[in-house]
Amino acid sequence: MNLNATMFAQAIVFGIFVWFTMKFVWPPLAKVLDERAQKIAEGLAASEKAKIELTLANKRVEEELGKSRNESASRLADAERRAQQIIEEAKQRATEESAKIRAAAEAEAEQQVYKAREQLREQVALLAVQGAEQILRREVNASVHADLLARLKAEL
Predict the structure, then answer these.
(1) pLDDT digit string (tens) for 92-120?
(2) What is the CB neighbour count within 10 angstroms for residue 46?
(3) Is residue 140 within 8 Å of 129, Cβ to Cβ?
(4) pLDDT confidence band for 2 (50 / 70 / 90)
(5) pTM listed for this prediction
(6) HEC profile for the chain?
(7) By CB distance 3.0 to 4.6 Å, which of 11, 44, 84, 121 could disulfide with 153?
């Protein structure tokens, strides 16, 4: 065979091979590569979108944490104010109660002093009558001299 004819036949076979490859093999490969490139682009876009959403979610979480911290600080301050108020009310009630107890004790002490004075007056009057009886050497009738004894009690 001739070198030119072999080269020419190989060129024709190569041309047919290139045409067959371009017509039947290359389009499915290009399609698969395009689909793969599209999937990768979609994945990158989804990744960027997820990063943005994550950033926004982190911001929302920080805002919510800040709000909850402020709210808890506010509640704690309210609780402390309420505790102070309760303590002040308890102190006031205790002061009022102690004043009532003191007044009752003073009133009771005055009554006891009054009773003691009355008993002392009666004893002094009795002693005075006994002393007068001994001085006069006769018995003094207490019922007869009740007016005199009452005046004597009042003077004591």
Answers:
(1) 999 999 999 999 999 999 999 999 988 88
(2) 10
(3) yes
(4) confident
(5) 0.44
(6) CCHHHHHHHHHHHHHHHHHHHHHHHHHHHHHHHHHHHHHHHHHHHHHHHHHHHHHHHHHHHHHHHHHHHHHHHHHHHHHHHHHHHHHHHHHHHHHHHHHHHHHHHHHHHHHHHHHHHHHHHHHHHHHHHHHHHHHHCCCCCCCCCHHHHHHHHHHC
(7) 121
Tokens of 67: 């709000």
Residue with tokens 């009452």, as numbered in its chain = 150
Q: How many Cα atoms are found within 13 Å in the side-chain-facing hemisphere of 117?
A: 10
